[in-house]
Amino acid sequence: MLARVFTLAILLPVVPSHAAVITLQNNNSRTQIDPTSSAGQFNWIVDGTNHLAQQWFWIKVGAGSATPISSLSAPAIVSQTVNSVTLSYTGTGSGVMVQTTFTVNGGVTGSGVSGIPISISVSNLSAAATNISVFQFANFDLNASAGNDLLNIASIPPSGVILQSEGATMTTVKSGMDAFNQWQGGSPASVLGPGAGSVLSGSLGDSPALNAQIGPGDESWAVQWNATLAASGTIGSTFGVSGEDSLQNGVPGQNLPTLGDFNLDGFADRADLSALLNALSDLSKFKSQPQINGSELFLRQLGNFEMLPTAIMEPVDNLDLQEEIDYLANQGAGSLTAVPEPDSFVLICLGGAALPFSRLRLRRPEVS
Fold this sequence. Notes:
The chain is mainly beta. The protein contains six helices and 20 strands.
């Protein structure tokens, strides 16, 4: 789904364009960005309800302090459409150029579904290698409410994912990105700082423990990537990460799905392999369970091992068996060698019916 990228940057002049508050919209969704201050992205309105107080990037260059990217220079609009904008900041003092892109992909009116793909790249403008840290801070106030949110920061190599939900209506936002080096969750003031372990301190505190849920409360989060940029004009002089915020309104009374939890007991473990096999034999019957309530979206979340954005999550099929095995092994579920080879086992269970439905599942290329 996502890639951390080091490249050789060919830096072209950016023609400055006056940047006031920028509004992007598509279908049922609208978001606003103040590119001149740390307010950054400050609204995400889906079907008339705002779910975001603030989301923006900070950068630390060398031994300097962490500052919002908007403090590097006045923003230049590289490109803009109705639903997307690319901004550029050139820090002559810091020796880096930052570009970030925000896009809003709304869903059908009334669906409560929306996505915002985001990317950021940092290029070294100096003749010497430079150490940088990039911080993403997000304060989602789901359903226009600052309280009652649950937060879970998870690391699922080679990606990372943050899940935030509000229990009353099960509105959830999933933020997926390239695997981060450090993280922090908690109240907006504690995460942004300037206290220890905050964004403004320049080094996040790795709290709470990964996969540990916190809340309910006014929760926010930040993640941090650390990199060394090669000298300008050489390979490795640009670093980039990307991800997507995906918002959805769940079915009332429906719990947030746990990745790989096909027996719906709240945990992903060896027992879910046989549950997945049973599900594959009759997916319609599996979806009719009260916990799923017929939701194809819920089902796809259970098997979204690639951490794809909501809009392009793939249907559950026999390929998810091997992905479930790999995922459980990565999560420390122990040896799974006793489990039959997935393709042959599925063919036995489904009477050979799985083969005609096999399809190519595109995977993210490895980046070295």
